[in-house]
Amino acid sequence: MNALSGSCLLLASGLLAAPTPAPPQAAAGVRLRSINPDPATGVARAVIVDQGSLVHTALVFPDDAVDPPQVQDDARAQGARALANIEHALRAARTTLDSLVRLHVYVTGAAVTPAIDRLLAERFGRADTKPAVTFVETAMPRAGMLVAMDAVAATAWTPEPGTAARVVSPLLRQRTPRAAHAAIQRAGPFVVVSGRAAPGDFDDAIRGTLAQLRGDLERVGVSFDQVVQIKSFVGDIGRAQRVEEVVSEAFVGATAPPQVVMESRMAGDPAEIELVATAPPGPDSRTDVEHLQPILGRYSRVARVNGGRPIFVSGLYGGSPDSVAQVDDMFAALQRVLQDAGSDVRHLVKATYYVSDKAADDRINAIRPTIYDPDHPPAASKLLVRGTGRDGKASTFDMIAVTSAR
Questions:
Q1: Cα 192–231–300 angle (5° rounding)?
Q2: Which phi and psi angles does 400 have, rounded to 5°?
Q3: CA 297, chain centre distance (Å)
């Protein structure tokens, strides 16, 4: 049995043990490479995880600490609190912000972003490894909140093959019973499932969507026990808490995976939900990434990673003032950063497109089949959002790939 200090270790089957020693200062067992890091911003264009398991956190808010200090109506102060809470979640997974790989920053508007930019520059500008970072604008489910974050980091912790260790920090509140603050994805095979959305009344739609996702996983030999993060995009952000509750109910008798809920302004079904899961070793494959059920050359229903090292790409922006030309700029920039990281578009695993402009949305739909191999498009979600956190930028891309190992 593993011992944990200052945190509780939970597997999919429930509580396993507590407590563990704090993680060592040296990141033994973890090796990261930043691609085109910028000391002025503290951000890299991409990060490669050469060694280590991945840690996925839940969405955290500035006031999520068990004994939170008074949260000021100040973007930088709130960002610092959110980053501290990310650190609490990571420590429960035996790692720290020093091994941060990817940070998602959710802001209420582009006016918040400069303060967070300064915070990240101060925290990571001199760091050995600088993270990939993506900004997106969303309404917040709590009054007074200007910023929220979720993260991916690396840890030397190695769970059993095919299992997802889900952990709880005693320093953070749980929004729902049995909710994990982080989950550990063992280095090796993993699966990403594209966003699903079922029709119906709110609760029934969430349950129906989860049933679809469960079916997608079962078709590739993976179960809900192996899920390491669930991300939901809802039209009514005021129902974020209810989304988390319904999702948690699907993990009967087990600790639920960490969850992220953000706003989507797409019309139609109540929510779109996507997930990431660890996977057991499969039969030998000739490809690093299997793209299952490709749809119109735009995306695949499921992407299964068999080989290569994970690459997390920072949110991309186009340089042109025109929203359509920005899309072309971003796809060109994507191909350059993948090349710099030893990869290519055939090794894309997951694409998330955050779009605030219909013309840009139409261009993304049109250009994807010309960029991707029709048999190998990545798993994907495309969301209509309030903005991208940057004035004048109508859309941003958030990408995961793997290096070419064959």
A1: 30
A2: -125, 135
A3: 23
Residue found under tokens 């068999």: 306
With 0-12 CB in 10 A as exposed, 13-18 as middle and 19+ as buried, what is 66?
Answer: exposed
**Cross-strand pairs, 184:** 55, 165
Of the chain, the end-to-end C-alpha distance in Å amounts to 37
Task: Say whether 44 sits in a helix, a strand or coil.
Answer: coil
Q: What is the DSSP letter of 395?
A: E
Contact in structure between 270 and 236 (CB atoms under 8 Å): yes
Identify whether the C-beta of residue 166 lies closer than 8 Å to the C-beta of residue 285.
no
What is the spatial distance between Cα 8 and Cα 180, in angstroms, rounded to a whole number?
10
Cα–Cα distance for residue pair 231/133, rounded to 1 Å: 17
* Rounded Cα gap, residues 253 and 290, in angstroms: 32
- The answer to whether 402 and 310 are in contact (CB under 8 A) is yes
Query: In sequence order, what DSSP letters do the residues of 79-127 get, joined into one string?
Result: HHHHHHHHHHHHHHTT--GGGEEEEEEEESSTTTHHHHHHHHHHHHTT-
The Cα–Cα gap between 310 and 53 comes to 10
Residue 14, CB-side half-sphere exposure with 13 Å CA sphere: 2
291-324 pLDDT, tens digit per residue, is 999 999 999 999 999 999 999 999 999 999 999 9
CA 318/CA 330 separation, integer angstroms:
5
Residue among 212, 244, 209 at smallest CA distance from 229: 244
Which pLDDT tens digit goes with each residue over 236-273? 999 999 999 999 999 998 999 999 999 998 778 899 99
Pairing of strands 14-17, 8-11: antiparallel
Secondary structure of 303-341 as H, E, C letters = EEECCCCEEEEEEECCCCCCHHHHHHHHHHHHHHHHHHC
Q: How far is CA 132 from the centre of its chain?
A: 11
The pair phi, psi for residue 87, each rounded to 5°, is -60, -40
The residues pairing with 271 across neighbouring beta strands, listed in sequence order, are 234
Half-sphere exposure (CA, 13 Å, Cβ side) for 391?
Answer: 5
For the record, the structure tokens of 269 come out as 């079904």
Residue 69 contacts by C-beta under 8 Å, 6 or more apart in sequence?
81
